[in-house]
Write a structure and sequence with these properties.
With about 400 residues, this protein is an alpha/beta fold. The chain contains 14 helices and 16 strands. A seven-stranded mixed β-sheet has the order 5-4-6-7-9-8-14, with helices on both faces. Strands 11-13-12-15-16 form a five-stranded mixed β-sheet, sandwiched between helices. Helix 10 links the parallel strand 12 and strand 13. The longest helix is centred in the last third of the chain and has 16 residues, at about 280-295.
């Protein structure tokens, strides 16, 4: 599938490489436009448009977890999986192509270190991958399943929603598959189009019995992934693929955990509360700086981190203080998780609101191809929303 997608992208004239995502700390997205030359020959004149999607903001170096090492996001995932395999003899990692390291290299070296019985490839069948993981976890082992792209998680939807999420409930707590963690690369990259840029977290947020987590960078990714693996509920861990190489931080080498279902206030403010997760957190940070510089508006930036169960208390306390709420995510606006946050905050904080709650999200269309940078809820769209809220 990935090979076919790469071929499709190349045939349309767009530069792309799933294994070579942006390597700098600036997420630059490129479009290649093909135009006929003036004499109307078939040789095109190539123009390139570049859209600045975000500037990566690394977390401070953590001091509470011991020695650190410079890692990008995919290396921090590898480190978390290495810690798990080392400490838990029952742990197994499986999925399409994970034995040689995976499309994004998140499992590189693990098969050689721990053996083919603990890190192994599966057939190209997402339903089978998750079904197998449920059985492994139900038998008492620790199962870490990889879905090669979050866009391909839908064939496993029934296994996740009807089996994994309900296993404990339907057996009266006699059986469970809480040792199952499902990893998947997630979110847009600027050229992934309709099958490699989706953010499907809202589909699963409607289902009790699973937890959904999205990190913003390497330090968060390792700590949250280890928390998901240790949690006694099945978890879906979505990894922002554009950050695999673009995000670089000093990450602790030993195992550590970051609590689930606790949002983090990254920047305190008094005028507007801004909520995001994953890549969009860095867009919000940039918008907060723009709002302060250009408008004199103080923004409170919150990383939700866990989509389900989400931290309503932290969000509502912030909105009570600021009186305004902006929520942004890459997924389409209708039925996106921003709608659930908006509804809950309206119920809890109605009398504290100074302006309507605003959502800046993707459009209600499939992810486009060459127009993907226009689809993204970038800093300019979010900045315009802040201006409208302040002037309401």
């Amino acid at each position: 599938m990935a090979a076919a997608a790469r071929l499709l992208l190349r045939s349309s004239g767009v530069k792309s490489s799933f294994s070579g995502l942006p390597g700098s700390v600036h997420g630059s997205l490129g479009i290649t436009l093909l135009r006929l030359s003036p004499d109307c020959t078939t040789r095109p004149t190539i123009q390139r448009r570049h859209a600045a999607h975000f500037t990566y903001h690394p977390d401070p170096v953590p001091s509470q977890y011991g020695a650190t090492q410079k890692m990008n996001l995919f290396q921090s995932i590898t480190s978390a999986l290495d810690n798990t395999l080392s400490s838990d003899p029952t742990a197994v990692i499986f999925g399409e192509d994970v034995a040689f390291g995976g499309v994004f290299r998140c499992t590189v070296g693990l098969r050689d270190k721990y053996g083919k019985d603990r890190v192994f490839n599966t057939p190209l069948c997402e339903q089978g991958i998750v079904g197998f993981g449920i059985g492994v976890a139900a038998a008492g082992a620790t199962a870490v399943a990889e879905i090669q792209f979050a866009d391909y998680i839908f064939p496993a939807f029934d296994q996740i929603v009807n089996e994994a999420a309900k296993y404990r409930y339907r057996s009266g707590n006699m059986f469970d598959c809480g040792n199952l963690t499902i990893r998947a690369p997630w979110g847009c990259v600027g050229h992934g189009s309709l099958y490699h840029s989706q953010s499907p977290e809202a589909f699963f947020a409607h289902c009790p019995g699973i937890k959904i987590v999205v990190p913003r960078g390497p330090v968060q990714a390792k700590g949250l992934l280890l928390s998901c693996i240790a949690d006694q509920n099945p978890c879906i861990f979505f990894e922002p693929k554009i950050l695999y190489r673009a995000a670089v931080e000093q990450v602790p080498t030993e195992a550590y955990s970051i609590p689930l279902s606790q949002a983090e206030i990254l920047q305190e403010g008094s005028d507007v509360t801004m909520i995001a997760w994953g890549t969009q957190v860095h867009v919000m940070r940039e918008v907060a700086s723009m709002a302060q510089e250009k408008l004199g508006v103080s923004c409170e930036v919150i990383d939700l981190r866990t989509i389900l169960p989400w931290d309503k208390d932290t969000i509502c306390k912030s909105v009570v203080k600021t009186g305004r709420l902006l929520i942004s995510h890459e997924a389409p606006v209708t039925g996106g998780f921003a709608a659930e946050i908006s509804s809950a905050v309206q119920e809890e904080c109605f009398l504290n609101l100074e302006a309507p709650i605003t959502r800046v999200c993707g459009y209600d269309t499939p992810f486009p191809h060459i127009f993907e940078p226009f689809y993204i809820p970038d800093k300019w769209k979010c900045f315009d929303a802040v201006k409208r809220m302040i002037n309401y």
